[in-house]
Design a protein that fits this description.
The protein is of the alpha+beta class and 232 residues long. 34% of the residues are buried. Strands 2-1-3-4 form a four-stranded mixed beta sheet. Helix 1 packs across helix 4 and helix 3 packs across helix 6. The longest helix is centred in the middle third of the chain and has 18 residues. The protein has one domain: Glutaredoxin (3-Layer(aba) Sandwich).
């Protein structure tokens, strides 16, 4: 039986990108169907008195998701597949190649690479209802307890009668092949313990060096500083 998984992402997040690489590999090893859903780090980390991302002419992560939202409106399964291609390439360009995809021109370059019309950037930003698409996904997962990305919402199946919302897995580099499948098995096993809230490996100085080395293309390309709102 196929397990349905909603994967909430923000293109800007290097951790979510690594997890997206993993879950594609895991889907090749296990019977998974991934639906790509949106989440806004800019909104969840918005400081009091600052504009919401939908109040800005261009907002890095939010505006990239508006382009993806326009692609997703195609009939299924084409819409989800188009978002998959979009995120796969936008994520690779930002997090591996260090390309500034978070500008309108950067988005046009992504669309060209996936064989889409670059004019979709202007169409997405001219259409106020793309705000609604992004905001709906964001609000839905926040209502389920989501506070960041990557967040997975695993649909009910024969192993678990209730949907499960999980933050993570937070891993770099992304496991591939059978290792990706084994990590999925560990994630799926979590569902048997509905009140198991957190299991965390503390990061050492060596871990931070490992992370910085892996994330260096993204760190050099970004035009923002990381702001994270604490969560309970």
């Amino acid at each position: 039986m196929t397990t349905q998984v909603d994967f909430h992402f923000d293109v800007m997040c290097p951790w979510a990108y690594q997890t997206s690489v993993w879950i594609r590999a895991a889907a090749g090893q296990r019977d998974l169907a991934v639906q790509w859903r949106f989440f806004s780090l800019e909104e969840v980390n918005r400081q009091p008195g600052k504009k919401h991302p939908w109040e800005r002419e261009w907002s890095y992560g939010w505006s990239m998701l508006r382009v993806a939202a326009l692609l997703r409106r195609r009939p299924e399964p084409d819409g989800n597949a188009a978002v998959d291609r979009f995120y796969r390439v936008a994520g690779r360009m930002l997090h591996e190649d260090g390309v500034k995809v978070h500008s309108p021109d950067g988005m046009r370059a992504v669309l060209r690479e996936i064989g889409e019309d670059p004019a979709l950037v202007d169409a997405a930003t001219a259409d106020p209802t793309t705000h609604d698409d992004v905001r709906t996904d964001h609000d839905e997962v926040v209502a389920l307890g989501g506070f960041g990305v990557p967040t997975l919402v695993i649909h009910p199946d024969h192993t678990c009668p209730e949907p499960t919302t999980l933050f993570g897995p937070v891993v770099t580099p992304a496991p591939t092949g059978e290792e990706a499948g084994r990590l999925w098995d560990a994630v799926a096993a979590w569902r048997a313990f509905p009140h198991l809230y957190e299991l965390r490996r503390p990061k050492t100085e060596e871990d931070w060096r490992h992370i910085q080395a892996g994330f260096s293309p993204y760190l050099n390309a970004r035009d923002w500083q990381t702001i994270q709102t604490p969560v309970a």
